[in-house]
Design brief:
This protein has one domain: Aldolase class I (TIM Barrel, Alpha-Beta Barrel), CATH 3.20.20. The longest helix is centred in the C-terminal third of the chain and has 33 residues, at 333-365. The chain has 15 helices and ten strands. The chain is globular. Helix 13 (289-300) links the parallel strand 8 and strand 9 (305-309). The protein has helices at residues 6-16, 19-26, 33-44, 88-99, 113-117, 133-145, 164-169, 176-188, 191-199, 223-230, 240-246, 259-267, 289-300, 315-323, 333-365, and strands spanning 62-64, 67-69, 73-75, 104-105, 124-127, 151-154, 251-256, 272-275, 305-309, 328-331. Strands 3-10-9-8-7-6-5-4 form an eight-stranded parallel beta sheet. A two-stranded antiparallel ribbon has the order 1-2.
Length: 381
């Protein structure tokens, strides 16, 4: 099958990846209501079709936090992307750089920031508040030394949400000989992935946090236990003062759904925030990102950059989010599926698809410049 849409990349990834890794990136928490809401609420928004306008010139670029985006899209942090394709974070970073877009590296990535920066473009760096402040300080120091331009601080994961699919697939809660055998059989059923990732994509560790672990030779899934034990549930907005002491560049707060939390981000001196529910992977039953976006953008959009992630599946979705107040959208599953389906080329093709869809949406709504996108692009009657 030749991929024509983001959903096609999802299907190709499902075929190529071992079951445990596809389910890990594809699934959400609990009954996955919020996961579905993210997509359905975007689909329910109607664009306003306009005709007979001069659409011969389109301006798709935006500037944000001192950087120029070729279009208002970035690659969101995705954990363990190096298990979807060989050294997957580096492949995705190259595709993003070629497209003129930012790539945000997850602290839970297989590749660390140094390996990604060696591709030629230092990534935005994503981090959680960890109990081990010394190790966290070292991570920030390395990211700063590498020239990472933006710190994305994720605040909606003080404890991991319950993801039933990961239990059913054996990704979590599976141990002993039977668990290892089942995972081995899963891998053997996907020989292309075995050759690309398992045989030639080592080391299979979480690069940024590997130095914090004393045991060697563990499976990549074992690192998640360390991560869960080291998330700091005591974190408050006051802890951002400590982060600022160790990071003098722009800070983007990721995981905001509430207007009052958005105002706290402003009071704490953040330069941006991401309206996000963690892709429906944390607290199930909360509102979709797109439904939370307008109120937050209205409340704080004049004080910092407002981005959004969650449910973006097309260039049309990007335009809808911009019309409701987002400066740019970050995509997660879309690039992870494309990476799993076809590596760097898959990610590049997916981004080109989003760009083409966005251009068509602009032309048919009469939007010549994305920097001017507003609610007049939507049919709200």
């Amino acid at each position: 099958m030749r991929a024509a849409s983001v959903s096609d990349f999802r299907e190709l990834a499902r075929r190529r990846l071992p079951h445990i890794f596809f389910e890990y990136i594809d699934g959400g928490s609990y009954a996955e209501e919020t996961l579905r809401r993210n997509v359905a609420d975007l689909e329910a928004i109607a664009l306003r079709q306009r005709v007979m306008r001069d659409m011969s010139k389109l301006d798709m670029g935006v500037e944000s936090l001192g950087q120029a985006f070729a279009m208002p899209v970035g690659l969101a942090p995705v954990g363990m992307a190096g298990m979807y394709a060989r050294r997957g974070e580096t492949q995705a970073a190259r595709a993003a750089a070629e497209a003129g877009l930012p790539f945000c590296l997850s602290a839970m990535g297989v590749c660390d920031a140094a390996e990604v920066a060696a591709t030629g473009a230092p990534p935005w760096f994503q981090l959680y508040m960890l109990k081990d402040r010394g190790y966290m300080q070292a991570l920030l120091g390395r990211a700063k030394a590498l020239g990472c331009p933006v710190l994305v601080f994720t605040v909606d994961l003080p404890t991991p949400g319950a993801r039933y699919r990961d239990v059913r697939s054996g990704f979590t809660g599976s141990s002993g000989v039977s668990g290892a055998v089942n995972q081995a059989l899963d891998g053997l059923a996907h020989p292309a992935w075995m050759w690309d990732v398992w045989a030639h994509g080592r080391p299979h560790s979480l690069g940024s946090v590997a130095g914090a672990l004393t045991q060697q030779g563990r499976r990549v899934t074992d690192f998640l236990g360390w991560v869960a034990r080291n998330f700091d549930r005591s974190v408050t907005w006051a802890d951002l003062d400590w982060v600022r002491q160790n990071w003098d560049g722009p800070i983007v707060i990721k995981g905001v759904l509430d207007v009052e939390d958005a105002r706290e981000a402003v009071r704490c001196g953040a330069q941006g925030l991401v309206v996000s529910n963690h892709g429906g992977r944390q607290l199930d039953g909360v509102r979709s990102s797109i439904s939370a976006l307008p109120r937050i953008a209205q409340a704080v959009g004049g004080d910092l950059e407002v981005y959004m992630d969650g449910g973006i599946r097309s260039g049309l979705d990007v335009l809808k989010a911009l019309a409701l107040g987002a400066k740019a959208c970050f995509v997660g599953r879309a690039w992870a599926w494309a990476l799993g389906a076809g590596g760097e080329k898959g990610v590049a093709q997916m981004l080109a698809t989003l760009r083409s869809e966005l251009a068509v949406a602009m032309i048919l709504t009469g939007c010549t410049k994305l920097g001017d996108a507003g609610a007049d692009l939507l049919d709200l009657d």
